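From the pipeline queue, job 12 of 40. The input is one protein chain; the requested action is below.

Action: predict structure.
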Amino acid sequence: MAGRQIGEGAFRLTLLSRFTLASALLAIIFALVLGTFVAAQAMHAGLNDAAATTVQAADSLLNPYLVKGDFVHPLWPARVTTLDSLITPHVLENGIEQVRLWSPDGNVVYSSTHEEIGKEIPQPTELTAALAGRPVAAIRPAPTGNGNGAAKVLTVYAPVRLLGATSPNGAYEVSLDAAPLLAQIRGARIRAWTLVLSGTAILYATLIGLVLRTSRAMVRKQRELHEAFEGTIRSLAAAIDAKDAYTGGHSSEVSRHAEAIARALHLSGRDVEAMRIAGYLHDLGKIGIPDHILRKAGPLDPNERAKIRSHSLIGYRIVKPIPVDERVKLAVLHNHERWDGGGYPDGLHGDEIPIHARILMVADAYEAMTSSRPYRRALDRDEAIAQLRAESSKQFDPDVVEAFVRVLDSARKPVRIRSRSRARAASDPTVLP
């Protein structure tokens, strides 16, 4: 039934909308990736700068007073006191939390926390790099019970190279309050994120501006082409109606009714548009029917009736190579099929008939019944509805009939009666028997 085809394509994003969403998503991803990279680089640069500064200060402070023997075994108390006298003023002045000296085999030979001297302490991974000759910096949570109260500490591991040594004699570890460095890094990251996001936003806005201008130009051209196409369709429909004097103005009325039925069935916007175009073109095949048959005053013989019935196929062959919606083409081909299977050209029945052809069938018949003929008066609205319902489930899809009745009930406008020139019912295959 028609209901199974209702609601197709109820919501579709336009090409511009899809491009805008996709490009916005890509811009956000690009900004996040670039911002994260730049922020990481700022963090890395901050740590390297801190490591270089700390190494330079430690080297100038300690190296002149260290000897190779200091890295062989834990320092004697007298030696510890000497180093304390060197280190303590800088600890107080520069916020240093702790200083350690490590031997090449990874033992603590000196620590500003004296209890650690000579004890086994878990070796940090950075120590290996320092003993290999490369300074490393890391930010860690402050040790429990840290007297300075720092939430995080910056720890620098650096090799100790005494005068004349070709390889590190050991390593020192300096831990200090990380707050100043973190504040500096935080500022650098904020500036990096600000530059990346604002730069991406400017680039994206520029791109979208260009796309919108191009899109508006394309829409304008598309509208002009559509209007030209529409004008061509209407002119063609007028030519069809003029060829058969009986059908003057018929196509535009069928188009109007077909569009209203499609909306009542809640078909998609593209289906509604297809119905409007199909209404204009449904009798296109009459161009190929000889005038003497279309305008014959008397009854048609079997050959002439067969000619009349061929107009559906002729119309389909005309529109088939045209770049028009396939739904329009099928509606032109099958709009004289019957719900009970007694129509033409293919004898389709029920749901085998495309919904667009079923709509045209009802719209076409109603328009024919409510128009004056030389051999009968025009039916009024209620009489035409009664005829449609009488043929419901025979000639017409009952769902389409009831949808059209709802349209007529909501409009309640007087049916416009138009006179038609002389013709016979046999020349109009849409009129009910």
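Job complete. The chain is about 55% helix and 10% strand.
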